[in-house]
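Now for my pick.
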Amino acid sequence: MKHIRNKHFTDGAKCTFNKMKKGLRTSVFNSNENFIDLALTTLEKGTKVGAKEFVYDFGRVVGFNRKGNPTTKVKVFLTQTLDSISSAYPV
């Protein structure tokens, strides 16, 4: 979860902003979002799009995708053992 907090939030690690300035984009959640709730809802209600991947459309803007566009969708990746979340971000 530390990875998500540091890399996919506007108030996360400073390197995220440095990457964005250099054109290397990363998707970010809106700062008021609870990424744990978003990830759990994605797993519960989302569509399985890969062996370890789920996507859910929240119907409201939850953040910005890698291209910097507002998005309503979240993608969640599970670990190899499928027992915990390895990453979650807006797509």
Summary: The helical segments are 2-7, 14-21, 35-45.
